[in-house]
Amino acid sequence: MKNRSGEKIKLASIDELLGVVNEESAMEIEISKIHPFKNHPFKVLDDEKMQDLVESVRINGVLTPVLLRMDDNEEYEIVSGHRRMHAA
């Protein structure tokens, strides 16, 4: 059996896996077409940290876009950014 420990393994970068957000891939979506990912493991709480985020969004806007994916109904579910969406 040949020893394969010296072979190079090519792994995909995070940008290749998720895609890089740029002006061409960023788009505005109707809020009514966006819904939370139903199996999201964390709950969005209306706690002090959320109030801080709400205030930050009020002053600065949402600095990092919410990451969405299209579902089977041609609507969008939130992959990343549940708290930002809630705060906005």
TrEMBL record:
Annotated GO biological process: chromosome segregation
Gene3D superfamilies hit by this protein: Conserved hypothetical protein from pyrococcus furiosus pfu- 392566-001, ParB domain
A Pfam family it matches: ParB_N
InterPro entries, sorted: Chromosome_partition/occlusion, ParB/Sulfiredoxin_sf, ParB_N
Record-level GO cellular component terms: chromosome
SUPFAM superfamilies: ParB/Sulfiredoxin
Protein name: Chromosome partitioning protein ParB
Classification lineage: Bacteria, Bacillati, Bacillota, Clostridia, Lachnospirales
